[in-house]
Design goal:
By secondary structure, the protein is an alpha+beta fold. 35% of the residues lie in helices and 19% in strands.
């Protein structure tokens, strides 16, 4: 995941293209959420800036079913944005 604060839509997609693209794969969309959405769920963001603006969501439970439940909660509060047409 990466921080998108201060970036407009075009800059967000450009950042993804430069720092997250992989050969033979394309983006179908993205999910955006606020940092407070993590704290509300006992998760946190560990910034490592490699690549720029990158971070890891930490604090996930060990049990897979609890991870999935938490991921579903986060998905519910995230906004979905489809990738721009090529």
């Amino acid at each position: 995941m990466f921080r998108s604060d201060g970036l407009d839509e075009t800059q967000i997609w450009q950042h993804l293209a430069v720092h997250a693209s992989r050969p033979n794969r394309r983006f179908h969309g993205r999910g955006d959420f606020r940092l407070s959405d993590l704290a509300d769920r006992t998760l946190s963001l560990d910034l490592d800036e490699t690549p720029p603006r990158h971070g890891n969501v930490t604090g996930w439970p060990v049990a897979k079913d609890q991870q999935l439940a938490l991921a579903r909660e986060l998905a519910e509060v995230s906004s979905a944005t489809p990738a721009p047409s090529e």
